[in-house]
Amino acid sequence: MISALPPNCLTSKLSALQSEGVINFRLTGSKFFGTQRECSDWDFFTEDSDHTREFLRGLGFSPVNTYRDDATISAVFYWGRRFSSDSIHIQLVQQDMIGIKEDAQWIIKNRFLVSPVKSEMCITWQAVILTLLAAQIERPTRS
How many domains does the chain fold into? Predict the structure, then answer.
């Protein structure tokens, strides 16, 4: 759930996300990792579903076609002025990947030096997610 709502025009959208009740929106991005600046937007992730997409469209969110930070994301929706402090990005995570995304976020926050440089964070996300995915592959037994 969302905590510490900002005292500005985002409050109604953030409140709507928080009060939806069925969809679990998880904070991510610079605000989660503690590297935000004054101009940082709000980033969340949640499990992808038809219900989630319909809900976001109903709130005025639009899909973004060029945002692919990691292999777990199936789509991204945004609201507000893109890439500004009064915008929200919602990463929709493939249904079978939500645990990988949660684990990767925990590992990055608690085991890595978090960088405020977005390109460096993208590389970190990729490395952690690929490692977690590789760990799930069932390896054949050697005889």
Answer: 1
